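Prompt: May I have another protein with tokenized structure?
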Amino acid sequence: MGAVEITLGIIIMVFSVLLIAMVLLQSGKDKRLSGTIAGAAETFFAKGKSKTRDKILARVTTVLAFVLVVLAVVFFIYLYATK
């Protein structure tokens, strides 16, 4: 196993961990409904801030997933081409 394979493997692992972290940082879609039923009240400003944060996390998650797929395909093509 060469240095290129190790480097690409490490990069893929880092992007995988980042993607998992981004998914875990997002609030669930059911949270708003259960918060309403439980009586949790949010202020006007906190509600907008939460939506903005979720929107940013969703975009970052999408970009990380796309980059991870591209890296996996590049890694597969590289491994297939070197055999």
Observations:
- The mean pLDDT is 82.
- The radius of gyration is 19 Å.
